[in-house]
Amino acid sequence: MQNYGIRIDLLKLKGAVLRNLKGKTATKLCLIIPVDDAEGMFLGEKGCFLNMTAIEILNPQYNDTHGIKPDIPKEQRDAMTEEQRKAIPFIGNLRPIEPKPQQAIQVSGTIGQDVFVNDDLPF
């Protein structure tokens, strides 16, 4: 089984900005994305979604195997000019996660069972 690491730059979505927003108890840096303007983003019954497509990179650099672009519905994509389609930004990348080899723990012996008696443990 192959796992992948994905990194997305949400500021590359059309209209996305960072702003400090003041709430009742604190001011926090927030990401604001206009849902109507961002390609691939839509508000559904169960949440706000960003559909994306992973496109294989033919000459990968930095271990990235795929570029990530917003996935635009076919009807919308067909209505776009070639220039508009090319202007859709890559918003991230994907790379395989290489598992780290596990090191075996060497056990040199055991101690008598009476050493491990502890009535304070929750089990």
Summarize the model shown:
It is built from 2 helices and 8 strands.
> Helical residue percent?
under 10%
- Structural class of the secondary elements? mainly beta
Q: Roughly what is the average pLDDT, rounded to an integer?
A: 85
Main sheet attributes: strand count, strand direction, barrel closure: 4 strands, antiparallel
Count of alpha/pi helices: 2
Instruction: Describe the global form.
Output: extended
Order of helices and strands: EEEEEEEHHE
* Order of strands in the sheet with most strands: 1-8-7-6
Percentage of β-strand residues = 25-35%
Give an account of the 3D structure:
With 123 residues, this protein is mainly beta. It has one domain. It is built from 2 helices and 8 strands, in the order E-E-E-E-E-E-E-H-H-E. The strands form 3 sheets. The protein has a 4-stranded antiparallel β-sheet, with no helix packed on it. Strand 4 and strand 5 form a beta hairpin. The relative contact order is 0.19.
